[in-house]
Amino acid sequence: MVNYPDTILNEEQLEELLSHPTAETIELFGKLDGDIIFLGIAGKIGPSLARMAKRACDKAGRGNKIMGVSRFSDAEERKQIESYGIDTVQGDLLDKDFIASLPKVKNVFFLAGMKFGSLDNLSMTWAVNTYVPALVADHYKDSRIVAFSTGCVYPLVSVESGGSLETDRPEPTGEYAQSCLGRERMFEFGSKKNNTSVALIRLNYAVELRYGVLVDIATKVKDSLPVDVEMGFFNAIWQGDVNNIVLRSLLQSSTPAQILNIAGAETLSVREIAKKFGEHFGVEVNFIGKEAKTALLSNSNLAYNLYGKPTVSIYELIRWTANWLKEENKLLGKPTHFEVRDGKY
Q1: CA-CA distance, 199 to 211, in Å (whole number)?
Q2: Which residues pair with 148 in a beta bridge?
Q3: How far is residue 137 CA from its own chain's centroid?
Q4: Domains (ranges, CATH) in the chain?
Q5: The pTM is what?
Q6: Phi, psi of 233, deg, nearest 5
Q7: Where are the beta strands (DSSP E) in the chain?
Q8: Rounded CA gap, 185 and 133, in Å?
Q9: Each residue's pLDDT tens digit, 132-183
Q10: pLDDT of 251-275, one tens digit each?
């Protein structure tokens, strides 16, 4: 069990917590056969996810080789990932010859995707989100594959519904969400065609202290900017909890592909969360708009039944985030655009 602090002081402490494997994750890696590769390792989730896998292997006394693939436009990020004991491979996943050159391994995590700026480059969005998965599904047809997707493939649902279930029909709004469903379909096709074990992770939304819906709301409150409440409700889950669930979902992969929602346990109110941040910052919150009767919400009970509920509460996340911003610690500067209701990101 992790002993969480009252305050997270710096990035070193944050990264340690994000990559802390649970006893159950360590147990999994103690039995896991084969090496592991993370495709699209650079970015928001990949480094801590891969580091958690490495730490779990080490704690379990296993020597599984762990690799990470990316274009690595940031040389410092590549150096940091390598410092965790992860082998890196630099290349473009849009290059089919590059994918063909990658080592065949038993366990594959697919994290590549395009969202920000998708409206300005739709053909690239479709290529990254559907063409690349088709290539990967074929190259790794004899592997286990865990592929990140998004809750955006669901329609907006009633705020009283408890969120979309894995059995609900996808109705993606906008081309970004449509391309994400396309990504799922490519992995589903590969799973059926080649009998490949696949798990599709519909995430909605992971948060940490440098990025996420809570940071978006907190920043507006702290800077005395109006908070739009039309998309009045959302899910949020600590990225460290996401990482543990995603790694353990390797053994949940199946053919046909298994779909798994990963989301926060509660339906959270933008208005109420903003007010909490207002209390932390000692400011009055300005709101615009009125809550719609629908929102993008996911029900994660299946994942909770398999792996347990999140270990970090929303109140801890609010406190950590507020303190992080008060200390003016680093932010990634990538807004989630969770307020978008028309699918145009």
Answers
A1: 25
A2: 201
A3: 20
A4: 11-153+160-206+237-264+297-306 (3.40.50.720)
A5: 0.96
A6: -140, 150
A7: 36-39, 66-70, 87-90, 107-110, 144-150, 157-158, 197-204, 206-207, 227-228, 233-234, 237-238, 258-263, 268-269, 287-288, 294-295
A8: 9
A9: 999 999 999 999 999 999 999 999 999 999 999 999 999 999 999 999 999 9
A10: 889 999 999 999 999 999 999 999 9
